[in-house]
Design a protein that fits this description.
This protein has 274 residues and is of the alpha/beta class. The chain is 45% helix and 18% strand. The protein has 11 helices and 10 strands.
């Protein structure tokens, strides 16, 4: 298994620091986020990635397609077209074996019409597939745990993500253990996904949930997820790319980034395996 450190795990580190600590921890790949890239500008960020010698496993994130207002929808599409361009540029600058993957989060509910919000997300992806194909970028739909359906991700299961992805030849899905571990149809849907698995992300589900449920992620081994079982499903489905550790956790964010990166390596080696 090839480890990638997603920047969200060291949220407060700027891009230069994130690239440095990833290398110093002996990790060969990084999952980038758009905000730290924007802080230095795309051209400089691409040069920094090239100098780092690291692979890029994905760019987070695009999406947030569910607005009803036409002007807001147009703005979201334009923003996602910029994200597609950023993905292509950063991956083009990175080490061989990088993945041209833009992670998409559908967006939450602007009203109470959940089916309508899901339909708008699917329609937006349909409008972006040609742009992504021209840039040789894979749009990867990330289903989110149902507790986030109202405010972040109306696509809640891997099956729902595949219902959209399968409409298009170049759209994939993200398997994130935090979001899918509970799904009684997980094995069936991972097998269904097969080559559409564009990214595999891992972190643990910890309880009790913190007041902000977004921060309920922990290091592998600190919670309830059976990582070897999920990893076997993903690898047997044909996925052979980098495995991103993506953790939203205030205590981890407040820690020294290099210490977090080193702890990530140890946790990954101890708990994630086929």
């Amino acid at each position: 298994m090839k480890l990638s450190l997603n920047q969200a795990t060291i949220k407060y580190a700027d891009l230069e620091t994130a690239l440095r600590v990833t290398r110093e921890a002996g990790i060969a790949s990084i999952g980038l986020w758009r905000e730290p890239v924007a802080e230095v500008g795309l051209v400089r960020a691409a040069a920094m990635v090239a100098d780092s010698g690291l692979r890029v496993s994905s760019l987070c994130r695009g999406g947030f397609f569910t607005a009803v207002d036409p002007a807001l929808r147009r703005a979201a599409l334009d923003e996602n077209r910029r994200a597609i361009e950023e993905t292509a540029t950063l991956v083009g600058a990175a080490a061989p074996g990088s993945a041209p993957v833009l992670v998409l989060v559908a967006g939450g509910l602007p009203d109470r019409d959940l089916p309508g919000a899901r339909a708008r997300a699917a329609d937006a992806i349909a409008e972006l597939v040609d742009d992504a194909a021209a840039a040789r970028v894979v749009l990867a739909i990330e289903p989110m745990h149902p507790i986030y359906a109202a405010d972040r991700g109306v696509i809640s299961t891997l099956g729902q993500a595949l219902d959209v992805a399968e409409r298009f030849p170049t759209v994939g899905v993200v398997v994130d253990t935090f979001h899918v571990w509970w799904d009684p149809q997980l094995a069936e849907q991972v097998r269904r996904a097969g080559p559409r698995i564009a990214a595999y992300q891992v972190c643990d589900w910890i309880t009790p949930l913190p007041p902000d449920a977004l921060l309920a992620r922990g290091m592998m081994g600190d919670g309830h997820i059976d990582f070897p079982a999920v990893t076997r499903l993903v690898t047997e489905a044909g996925y052979a790319g980098d495995v991103e550790v993506e953790i939203f956790n205030q205590a981890i964010w407040d820690a020294d980034p290099l210490d977090v990166a080193l702890r990530t390596v140890k946790s990954f080696e101890g708990h994630v395996g086929a």
